[in-house]
């Protein structure tokens, strides 16, 4: 079987609600922090929003047909919290539930397995107005929302993800401020980390207690940065960076607590841990999902509080300015497996932004760079499987070009083009390439 994936390997495609759904004011959907952030001048390129996005809310039949025709067996999407609870608490909105029931029924009919993310960054604005993730009550609100999802969609969903990338929600949203809600306070950001993880733990605990039989896990965009040189000092620097970017999340999730070395370097921060929290957070997980796009190179820096800095490299870059490093994905899967031995791993996102052009005939999009990117990263996944790492599946990011957060529609990650004006879908060459890979016509 060398160079081939096992028969039961999961081949998927991923999206997130705010990035693709549109229909921002339909059927009782409330407002989220992303609706507000997009309307704040200067936050999102050209003032763009997810108001319409790919209009998947009305066009999911077409997207499901396209997935089906490519042999894609799993669709990873997220549930928009403000569609289910317009102000983040209380009784669910029937029309919101109906939408996801329709989507799930259509997926089932097509034989596509749903991988459902409960939270992909769209906190109801009403909860942000009460303090957002830095406030403990938000963890309980998330627990309530997760339980509504389990109950309403449980019969059709075998694979759940509590949170997508708590690092981004907390650090990009509350410390750096480049994501919603755009606040800039490190102490708040670290409180947010804890409450996100607490919300996750509460949801997993409830899911188990309900006796449900599915799998539940979390998706992280963690990093084990590469030392810039073979020197011992750079190796130590990279390990310090892994404290901040990875062990802050994997540590508590696997019952080892927050990395003290990192917290000691942040004297302004204190984790709002209450009695019993760390046990709640460390619920056994069925899998860890990894979103991998690039790998940073890290060097020792005497002047930095944690003695590391990111350094530029010679690697080819994508339109995001991110290095293309397929080996990094393999290194990272190994690192996670060696350090934590998760039951199972998925690559829940992988892909690249390329500014693809449509052919003159208007029906073809050539994206050879994306094909190269996918091929080389799939090869890393194949190596991982051959090495015995429990990698169970791969989800390309993304099914279609969509709203790329603060970059608006300027960064195109799709294997299907989605015209931002008309919503017209055109499968790109990479879509056909992915179809071949899924069919087993490639050796890696
Ligand atoms: C992510 C997000 C996606 C992004 C993608 C490309 O998990 O970071 O899930 O929403 O669009 O990563 O930046």
Describe the structure in your own words.
Helix content is 41%, strand content 14%. It is an alpha/beta fold and 444 residues long. It has one domain (10-438): TIM Barrel. The strands form 3 sheets. Strands 1-2-3-4-5-7-10-11 form an 8-stranded parallel beta barrel, surrounded by 5 helices. β12 (416-418) and β13 form a beta hairpin. The longest helix has 24 residues, at 186-209. The model has no long low-confidence stretch (mean pLDDT 97). Residues 16, 19, 164-165, 168, 221, 291, 349, 397, 404, 413 line the site of D-gluconic acid (GCO).
What's the CATH architecture name? Alpha-Beta Barrel
The CATH topology, please? Answer: TIM Barrel
Q: Count structural domains.
A: 1
Report strand order across the widest sheet. Answer: 1-2-3-4-5-7-10-11
Largest sheet: 8 strands, parallel, barrel
The CATH superfamily is: Glycosidases
The helix content, as a percent range, equals 40-55%
Question: How many DSSP-defined strands?
Answer: 13
User: In CATH, what is the class?
Assistant: Alpha Beta
> Which segments are poorly predicted (pLDDT under 50) over 5 or more consecutive residues?
none
Q: Separation of termini?
A: 10 Å
Number of helical elements: 15
Instruction: Give the names of the bound compounds.
Output: D-gluconic acid
Characterize the overall form.
Answer: globular
């Amino acid at each position: 079987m060398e160079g081939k994936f096992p028969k039961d390997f999961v081949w998927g495609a991923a999206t997130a609600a705010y990035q693709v759904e549109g229909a921002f004011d339909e059927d009782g959907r409330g407002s989220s922090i992303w609706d507000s952030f997009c309307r704040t001048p200067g936050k999102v390129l050209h003032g763009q929003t997810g108001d319409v996005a790919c209009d998947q809310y009305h066009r999911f039949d077409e997207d499901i047909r396209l997935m089906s025709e490519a042999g894609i067996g799993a669709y990873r999407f997220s549930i928009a919290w403000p569609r289910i609870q317009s102000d983040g608490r209380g009784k669910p909105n029937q029309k919101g539930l109906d939408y996801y029931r329709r989507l799930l029924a259509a997926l089932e009919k097509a034989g596509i397995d749903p991988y459902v993310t409960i939270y992909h960054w769209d906190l109801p604005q009403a909860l942000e107005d009460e303090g957002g993730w830095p406030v403990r009550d938000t963890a309980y609100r998330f627990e309530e929302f997760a339980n509504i999802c389990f109950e309403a969609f449980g019969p059709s969903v075998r694979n759940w993800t509590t949170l997508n990338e708590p690092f981004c929600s907390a650090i990009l949203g509350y410390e750096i401020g480049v994501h919603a809600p755009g606040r800039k306070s490190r102490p708040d950001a670290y409180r947010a980390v804890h409450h996100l993880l607490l919300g996750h733990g509460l949801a997993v605990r409830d899911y188990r207690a309900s006796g449900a039989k599915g799998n539940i896990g979390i998706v992280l965009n963690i990093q084990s940065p590469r030392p810039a040189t073979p020197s011992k000092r750079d190796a130590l620097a990279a390990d310090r960076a892994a404290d901040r970017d990875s062990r802050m999340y994997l540590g508590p999730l696997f019952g080892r607590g927050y990395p003290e070395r990192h917290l000691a370097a942040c004297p302004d921060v204190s984790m709002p841990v209450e009695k019993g929290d760390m046990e709640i957070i460390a619920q056994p997980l069925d899998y860890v999902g990894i979103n991998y796009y690039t790998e940073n190179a890290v060097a020792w820096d005497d002047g930095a509080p944690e003695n590391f800095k990111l350094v530029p490299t010679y690697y080819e870059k994508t339109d995001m300015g991110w290095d293309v490093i397929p080996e990094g994905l393999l290194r990272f899967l190994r690192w996670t497996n060696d350090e934590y031995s998760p039951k199972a791993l998925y690559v829940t996102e992988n892909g690249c932004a390329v500014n693809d052009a449509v052919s003159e005939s208007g029906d073809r999009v050539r994206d050879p760079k994306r094909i190269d990117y996918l091929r080389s990263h799939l090869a890393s996944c194949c190596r991982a499987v051959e090495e015995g790492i429990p990698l169970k599946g791969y989800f390309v990011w993304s099914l279609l070009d969509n709203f790329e957060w603060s970059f608006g529609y300027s960064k195109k990650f799709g294997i299907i083009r989605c015209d931002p004006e008309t919503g017209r879908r055109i499968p790109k060459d990479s879509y056909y390439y992915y179809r071949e890979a899924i069919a087993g016509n490639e050796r890696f």
